[in-house]
Amino acid sequence: MTGADLGTGGERLRPGTAVTPLRAGLHLRGRRGSVTLEGSTAVPVVWGLLEEPLRSGRLAEFREGLEPGSAVRVAVDTLVGQLADHDLLVPGPPAAGTPDTTGGAVDPAVARWIDATAGHPADAAAALATARAEVLARDPAAPPAAAAVRALEACGLPVTRTPDPELPGDRVLLTVRAAGRDRAVAAGLGGATGYATAPGSAAQARADAAALETRLAAAGTGEPQSPELTGAFAALLAGAAAHRLLCAAAGLPDPAAEAADPRLIPGIPAVLLADTRPARADHHSWLGPERIDADRRVRLAPPAGLGEALRRITALGEHRCGPLPGPLAGELPQLPVPLATCTLPGPATANAATPRTLTGGGPRLDLARLELFCRAAELLLGDGEFTVGADSVHARGRALRHAAARRLAAAVPDGRTAVDPARWSGHPQLRHWWTTLTDRLAVAARLEVHRAAPGAQAYRAVVRRTPVGPGGRPGPVLGEAVEATPGDAASFAALAAVTAAVTAACTAAAGPSAGPPRPSGGAVAPLATAGARTAAWEDLGWTGGWLADLAGREEAFQHTLHRLSGAGPAALTPAAAPEPAGLLRSFGFTVLRTAEETR
Q1: What span, in angstroms and rounded, lies between the C-alpha atoms of 481 and 491?
Q2: Which of the chain's termini has less CB crowding within 10 Å, N or C?
Q3: Other CB atoms closer than 10 Å to residue 121's CB: what's the count?
C-alpha cells in the first residue's frame, strides 16, 4: 500500500505500531516498517488529532471533517501518505472480525499477528479461517509431533494426527489445506542440528528433509544427545515450522525474508538450521537434489559482480548444508600470496574415504576463492570435460585459456615465436611476483614467453624450475598462463609459480592433492571490475588497475583464442547436465562442455 492508494475509507494504523514524539517530529516503527518525520513542532500536534481516528479505522470520517485545501488537511494527508509509503497502514477491518463462510473466525491471537504483518489482513484472515492442519509422524505421541500439534492448535487451527511409518523417528511433516491448496513443512534432526524446510508440496518437503538429513550427517554436526527431539528444542523447531506453514497458507512472506539477511540469495528457498551448543537458529539458502515444485526449479540470472558471485559461493559451500565444497582461507598464510583451500570427496576406489585437498591462490583472496570454487566444481563434474564460470564470459575465458595452454604445450616450440624479454620484463606485476619467487622463496626458475601463432595477439608464458634435467630436458613446469599481451602472460605465469611453491610447502602433510587449478588468468577481470571504480593512481602495479586493463581486452582476446582453436566450448544443455551442473545453473553459474576440438 502506498500514499497513492489512500481514499478508500478503510485505512487504519497497523496494530503494534509504536510512536515516539520528538522535539519537532515523530518516530513511528512497526513490524514491517518505520519512519521518522521531522521539521516542525506542529507534527506532534497533528498526530495528537490523527492518532485515534487512525487506530480505530475512522480515517475517512476524520478527513471529511477537514476543509479541503486547508493547511491542516494538507498536513494530515502528507503524514498519512508517509505512513502508507512505509507500510504502516493497512486496509479493511481488523482480521479478528473476518468470519469464514461457515461462520467461523480467526483466533484472536492469530488475528493480532495478521494485523501486524499482512499487507491485506482481511484476505489473510479469510484464508486461515478455513485452514485445516495435519501432523504426520512415525509416532504422533512422540515429543516432536506433540510439540507441532501444540504449536498449530495454539494458532486456532484444527489439527489431525496421522501416523506415518515411513518417516524417521525424529522427523515430522506438517501440512495445511487453505484456500484449496495444500502446503507442507518438514522439521527434524540431522546429526545434532535441527531443521525446518521451506514451505512446499508434501513431496517436496519430504525430499528436502531427506536430503538435509543426509547432508547434515555427512557434515559431522555431531551426534544428538537423545534419539528424539525433546523439550525446548522440539518446541523451537515445531514453532518455527508452524510459523512458516501459517505464513504460506495465509499468503504472507516467508519468515526467512523478514530479516533481510544479506547472506540469503533472493529467489532461492531457505531452510532453518538450529543448534543447541551454542544455542542459535538461522536461515540458509538451500536447493535440494530433488527440485519437484516450480519454485525449486529456479534459474537465477548470472551474478552482476564479484561480490554477488561470492555470496552465492558462500551459500553453496556452507559447511553444514552446502552441497558443494566451500573455498576458505582457513589457517593458510596469506603472504606472499593469498591462498584458499577446500576438500573434495575422494576418488571412487577402495580408498574412497580419503579426501583430496584443492588449494589455489590469486592476486586477491576473493579471486582465489572464486577460481578454486570453479575448479572444484569441474572436478566433481568430470575433470577435462566441463568448465564452470560465474557467468558466460568467465566460463568461456577459462575454457579457451585451458584449451590453448594444452594445445601449445603439446606443440613443438618455434624459436620464431619466442618473445624478446624486453617486451615483457618491465611489467610491474611480473616484477613483483618474479622477485617473490626467485628472491623471497629462493626458487631457481626461468621464464619463457612465446606467441601462440604468428601475428596473433595471444601469448603463452611458462615458468620452469632450473637447472634443466639431464640430457637438456626442461625442468618441471611451475606455472603457465595464456594472455593477450606478453607482459600479462608472464605476470600470471609467475603468480601461478609462486602459488605452486607456497602451496607445496603448506599442504605437504595435508593429504593427496587434487592438482593445480587450470590457467584462467584474466578471465575473471570483467566480473571483478563490474561496478567497481578504479582510482586515477591505480596503474598496472595495483591489482585493481591491472584487472581493469585486462577487462578492456577480454572480449577481443576470447575472439582471438576461438579463431586460433577453430572451435570453442559448447553450452551444456539441460538434458546432458549431470549434477551438480543443474544446481550451479540454478544459482546463476555457467557450465560449458569442452568441445572435442579444444581438448
Answers
A1: 8
A2: C
A3: 29
